Amino acid sequence: MPSSILESATDAPVATREARRARRLPLKVVVGGAVVAALVIVGVLSPWLAPHDPQYQALEAMLKPPEWLGGAHVLGTDNLGRDILSRIIYGARVSLLVAFAVVLISGAVGILLGAISGYFGGKVDFAIQKLVEVVWAFPALLLAITILAFLGQGLFNLILALVAQRWIQYCRVVRGQTLSLRDRDFVAATRALGAGSPRVIWRHILPNLLQISLVIGTFSMASAIISEASLSFLGLGVPPGIPSWGTMLADSRSYISTAWWLALFPGLAIFVTVLGINLLGDGVRDLLDPRLKRAMKH
Amino acid sequence: MPVLLLITLLVFVLLHAAPGDPASMLLGQENTAADLEQARRRWGLDQPILVQYFKFAAAAATGDLGKSFRFSRPVKEVIAERLPATCELAFFSILIALTLAIPLGVWSGARPNSWIDNVGTSFGLFGISMPNFWLGIMLILVCAGSFHILPSGGRSTYGVAGAPQTGFYFLDSLLDGNWAALKDAMLHVLLPALALGANMVGILMRVTRSSVLDADTEEYVITARAKGLGDRAVLWRHVFSNALIPIVTVAGLELGTLLSGSIIVETVFAWPGIGSLLITGVTSRDYPLVTGVVMMYTVAFVVINLIIDALYAVIDPRIRY
Fold first, then answer.
1. Shortest Cα–Cα distance, B126 to chain A (Å)
2. Does domain B83-149+195-320 have CATH number 3.90.79.10?
């Protein structure tokens, strides 16, 4: 048998296998996506998934250990006899709501201001960039603490406090991208055809910024979840009545030596969620455009 | 400077426009209206916000940050007393972060897809995903609660440290030649520094790895190898030194995050620094104290960024200002 026929016979499946492998989603995206999907499902279906009422206080069953250590509840109970698993499941709602709200609002504000700043330049750009400079000078958590000291505890206030600094990331990156996009031929052609600035920004600039915004959004979601938990832990975020992972950890501090399960499980929930979102972010970044990796880095 | 003025104005207006009366909060409910009025007058709270702000800004320009409502002492004094604790904590966190992240990042970048790269990358991802306050609680649980090998909080064991001279316990114990105090301070700082530095380890490791990967394919590296230089020399003398700029940039930016993180880690470990002081100020509506601490943090952040800019020229002689 001629060698060329042999080669083509063995090469064909290899090529197909490689093509199939290239088409397959990266493991990071699959694992990260699964974690985010689980968070969404648990958050949305929490009333049906939680085995107990998260607020119900069974005072006769305070600080009971998890089921495998002889307790009656899967992950044990807290200092007021509330079921920890149910509170974690309901806590996913808060994390989900805060994360999505912060990403959507800060994304909308940051992308719009960044696009306007980069497209118009001049005084508009100067004013927006001065604002960016002032807010950028605050370490992130510090600004949120200051705002919450002003507004007081509450879910809406918490979202507002987190948005206050997060829009900058979008604004800075989008401004840079817009500066390079506004001089491209397709934008000039659209302008020559008589399109006004709002139309150019909305129809031609913004769609080109979606990829990079998606990547920033994914990482921003992870940091929003950690910040929400941190602020709730400090007693400045979610009000005590609402079960959240951060407040659960704050409550656990007095019982670290006697009831470790109070601190372990809510923290694990935050860690696994953030890890999943970061994996997804990494995967999406690599998948969409390898060049984005460099753009994000600089 | 204009940025700093805008920041102080923003903080001042935010805190002073907040609902809740600091006078009634600090004096308690049993005081008469006349007492409250007198307290407001004494602290200048009866004046319009802008008048209060200009008085504050004029005094701040001379180094006077006002008097703390809660501690009844000058804010500058209270901050100066707590600042060494935060600096000491930040220093050891950075030290831990650099010691772990740079070798791990360099080895991972030099051998992509090897076992060390997989370990390093996982370590980095874990670091950036770990909430530092939870890590702190877990460290207390394991090291202090279960194994009793390290203290769970505070800066020193009562009675071990000598009289404070500089406020930096490490320096004080060295100056005194008090080795027991030095060991005690080291044991106390280890857990909070680990908790605070974990995120920085993750981020720096990832940046170091990708910078080394980028630099590894440059022509000067190929030339160095072609000249017959050993792997180690190429890696540390050529690849690493050229990968330093992004590492220093990110390390500088992360210092700001580290300062933020110190607020929460100090709370977990009852560390008597300015982070826990800020939370005390916020909960007791101590305006001068909170404004002073926030100003301190932001000035530190701005100064760190300036130092980082200056460092570029040291690292890369091609950069001139």
1. 7
2. no
